[in-house]
């Protein structure tokens, strides 16, 4: 079964998590943030150590463990009754992070739309990430050098994923607006799906 899916797409600090948590609270949607799945792993878990090793340098965790962990998370959410694939739309944040992951997930996802939260103000994204680091104690957002590396990694590895899915699916949302205005735009696109 392919999961009906909407991607929240954009650079770190573009506002994907803010919008995803709101959408996930609406009946008929299930929000899955791959980064949160990794951050919830215990340090004793080999994959948890792997995540810390990569995230602390601003790099992406290798594809196979990332996709395996994502599948396990979605399966657990289905078994626990949080996610109902037959009636819910999956809102994905943080996966696929590169072309290889997009290819691996091709047979699992029925991509309905890609909401590309674009923020051209790098300083605004850095500020958001640093605020989040303080609020949520996130190692991958704590140091300016790591943030800059994450933004470079995004441009190099993640941005090309948009071309993989094609322009017809991509809807650009200006995420420099207030979260309320961004949500208004996001909901406008979702109602067309």
Task: Summarize the structure in words.
The chain has a single domain, classed as 3-Layer(aba) Sandwich (Rossmann fold), CATH 3.40.50. Helices cover 50% and strands 17% of the residues. It is an alpha/beta fold. It has a five-stranded parallel beta sheet with strand order 2-3-1-4-5. The mean pLDDT is 90.
What is the gist of this entry?
This protein has 193 residues and is of the alpha/beta class.
Keywords:
193 residues, alpha/beta, Rossmann fold, 9 helices, 50% helix, 17% strand
Strands, count: 5
Mean pLDDT metric = 90
Strand content: 15-25%
What share of the residues lie within helices? 40-55%
Q: What's the structural domain tally?
A: 1
Largest sheet, spatial ordering of strands: 2-3-1-4-5
- Poorly predicted parts: none
Looking at the structure, what is the overall shape? globular
**CATH architecture descriptor text:** 3-Layer(aba) Sandwich
CATH superfamily: P-loop containing nucleotide triphosphate hydrolases
**Main β-sheet: number of strands, strand sense, barrel status?**
5 strands, parallel
CATH topological fold name: Rossmann fold
Q: Please write the string of helix (H) and strand (E) elements.
A: EHEHHHEHEHHHEH
Compute the CA-based radius of gyration.
16 Å
Number of helices: 9
**Distance separating the two termini:** 19 Å
